[in-house]
Design brief:
Elements: E1 12-21, E2 24-34, E3 39-43, H1 50-57, E4 65-69, H2 75-78, E5 82-85, H3 99-105, H4 108-111, H5 119-131, H6 147-159, E6 165-169, H7 177-192, E7 196-200, H8 207-210, E8 213-217, E9 221-226, H9 227-230, H10 233-240
Parallel strand pairs: 3-7, 3-8, 5-6, 6-7
Antiparallel strand pairs: 1-2, 1-4, 8-9
Bound molecules: adenosine-5'-diphosphate (ADP).
């Protein structure tokens, strides 16, 4: 795609991506381009392939065909410009580290592996914790945090990476109202600074309020574009195969 220059500026573009697990196709012929400085929600029913899309983009799953491009390049070439926030439930929270440790881990690229964390690094990590309202929990073991607090720490870890593109897998799942507001305010702040985020989101009621754009997915792209154009009952019926009871 970048050969004709069309996707060169796009923080993330999919070019005819097909993914299968043990010969069962999960994503078929996915093509899209995310414009810079936008917040995109990835929306679709359970099993639609939302997590698979993110994992494939990051090279954790190999596509059968096609490729993802970040800023017109492969993921390896742009590593530091992309930050990934995995699903909270996919992480072992019993690991004996503090909130501050987790945020400092986001700085390792800057610090260098096996080098000591210095006061200025801790200062940057504390700033990020403060931005998500977690400064008072810096020394707390992560196993002793609520789900919402864990998610805020994850966000702080992403913030210190100073990435240009943020990929987040369900950051609002199971969090309290205050955490939801904090995460959305932070995403809006990043967007206003010209950063880009793609976020798996499950709550159809808040999609248009929180996000500029939507990628509606069910094993293939059902619709993609401005939230108001994508979140129509026609598209939602198509994506959810008539399983949606309430369409507002
Ligand atoms: P979503 O995030 O939209 O709920 P997923 O990407 O997690 O969807 O899963 C899409 C489909 O792929 C589902 O049917 C799921 O069961 C299947 N799947 C996901 N991961 C694997 C895996 N590692 N091996 C085999 N099948 C998988």
């Amino acid at each position: 795609m970048s050969s004709n220059g069309s996707a060169g500026n796009s923080p993330l573009a999919a070019c005819e991506v097909t993914v299968a697990y043990r010969n069962t196709p999960v994503l078929t012929d996915l093509s899209f381009e995310v414009p810079p400085g936008t917040l995109t929600a990835i929306v679709g029913p359970n099993g639609a392939g939302k997590s698979t899309l993110i994992k494939t983009a990051l090279g954790l799953v190999q596509p059968l065909k096609g490729q993802f491009e970040f800023f017109g390049k492969s993921f390896r070439e742009v590593d530091g410009r992309v930050s990934y926030v995995p699903q909270r439930t996919s992480v072992d929270w019993d690991f004996p580290v503090t909130s501050l440790d987790v945020v400092c881990m986001g700085l390792y690229r800057k610090i260098g592996w096996f080098r000591p964390v210095r006061a200025r690094h801790r200062g940057r990590a504390m700033e990020a914790l403060a931005e998500v309202g977690m400064q008072d929990y810096a020394k707390r073991q992560i196993s002793q945090l609520s789900g919402g607090q864990q998610q805020r720490v994850f966000l702080a870890r992403a913030l210190v990476q100073d990435a240009e593109l943020f990929l987040m897998d369900e950051p609002l799942a199971g969090v309290d109202v205050a955490t939801e507001k904090t995460i959305i305010n932070t995403l809006h702040r990043l967007r206003d600074e010209g950063k880009t985020a793609m976020v798996v989101h499950h709550d159809l009621d808040t999609v248009s309020e929180y996000f500029d754009r939507v990628l509606l997915l069910n094993r293939q792209v059902i619709a993609e574009g401005a939230a108001k154009d994508v979140m129509t009952s026609e598209h939602l019926k198509q994506a959810y195969s008539g399983k949606l009871l309430i369409l507002s």
